[in-house]
Amino acid sequence: MINLQNIEKVYRTSTIETLALNNINLHIRTGEFVSIMGPSGCGKSTLLNLMGLLDAPSAGRVEIGGETVTQYRDKELARLRNQKIGFIFQSFHLINDLSVLDNVEIPLLYRKGDASGPSRRQLAREALEKVGLSNRMNHFPNQLSGGQKQRVAIARAIVGQPSIILADEPTGNLDSAMGNEIMSILQQLNADGATIVMVTHDETMAKKTHRLVRLFDGAMVGDSVLMSNA
Fold first, then answer.
1. How far is CA 96 from CA 48, 108, 123, 194, in A?
2. Are 190 and 169 in contact (CB under 8 A)?
């Protein structure tokens, strides 16, 4: 599903060069739930951004769903992101002036020739039902708790029925109870067929996934199977 081969990522300025990722080789199979851990600044979010086609490697090859995307143009990358990848962020990134339902519908607005307005609304409602927020669809983000905001963010990520979900610290801003609820939703989405990659600092959350990849100073230093996804 996701294949990274000999990946390097270098950030350069006029005075300094920083090696963010160094010779990363990682294959994530369809249906896996993989967590990525490591200290701050070790390259976790950079790696997730490469998987999500939000950034390009300085060297190496990226394959998503069997497509080699390293040489794709921006328009082709945007198409692939919109069709196959859902993003969940630690800080939710909801638009406060839009209702919950409108926030969830946003990704569908960028799909050319796809669902009509009424169909988009129905897909957004169904996504909110999956995360248990059908009774909050007409509320606004500032009327929700942190856990509810993250559920909205998950609904927005899954409304287009992506095969891949990338989550960057999805429980990082939540207390343990709310964090466990969010993890339960992610586990159910995985059980329903989604391939999930999650960056986390929480060892307890990581142990609820199939596999744990550890980074240090931009390099992979561990890759452990925690449970089978067969």
1. 26, 18, 21, 28
2. no
Residues in the chain: 230
Of residues 203, 206, 196, 199, the one with CA closest to residue 227:
206
Q: Please tell me the predicted confidence (pLDDT) of residue 32.
A: 96
d(CA 78, CA 228): 32
Domain for residue 89, yes or no?
yes
Which CATH number is 130's domain given?
Answer: 3.40.50.300
The Cβ-side half-sphere exposure at 105, using a 13 Å CA radius, reads: 19
pLDDT of residue 91: 85
Tens of pLDDT along 146-193?
999 999 999 999 998 999 999 999 998 888 999 999 999 999 999 999
Max distance between CA atoms of the chain, in angstroms, equals: 54
